[in-house]
Amino acid sequence: EVQLVESGGGLVKPGGSLRLSCEASGFTFRSYNINWVRQAPGKGLEWVSSISSSSSYIYYADSVKGRFTISRDNAKNSLYLQMNSLRAEDTAVYYCARDLGGTWAFEIWGQGTMVTVSS
Amino acid sequence: QSALTQPASVSGSPGQSITISCTGPTSDVGGYSYVSWYQQHPGKAPKLMIYDVSNRPSGVSNRFSGSKSGNTASLTISGLQAEDEADYYCSSYTSSSVWVFGGGTKLTVL
After folding, report:
1. Which pLDDT value is given to residue B96?
2. What are the phi and psi torsion angles at A9 (to 5°)?
3. What is the mean pLDDT of residues B39-52?
4. Cα separation of A25 and A40, whole Å?
5. Interface mutation vs chain A, best among B99, B100, B106, most A CBs within 10 Å
């Protein structure tokens, strides 16, 4: 079964750091671009970051640029998001999402992990 | 990276058809054929319904269709069913090599 499973969410104080992980199974992880998408409570979806299959291309939303770092370890079938200088507005469910392959769409989604930034 | 514009809500009766619009600038919706649509039920992860403007992934009902004219993309759901009640989001790849989502549309099946 094709699957993405996020972990690492939790409660953190403003200015703090957190590292999210996304473990993939059921497909050839190293062949796909992977993304992070977040959703604040009661709000819409917001694309956060993407990384190409070989980590050659990395992109960030303006809202997280300079604070978040995306990375992947193809040997471990894992994606990461290092989040520093966290703000209250970063509070959201964070989803990892795999590209469809050959085009720009998010085909496979994880169940999400909740990040709460609060004092 | 401004959000694409979608109506906040639409509604329809079972069996009817509804259309959700998604408007953006030439730098995304108008300039690319990489518009996708997602369905999200409460508490669940989004599900890809349409990609590349009008293509359906395997397993998605043919009651769902997509189109685009100029800077506006549209998702049409025909033969509305109770299980179609959900939030729907459009998304587009942009000229800045980033992605942008619409604000979401809540579909109510009356």
Report:
1. 82
2. -70, 170
3. 97
4. 27
5. B99
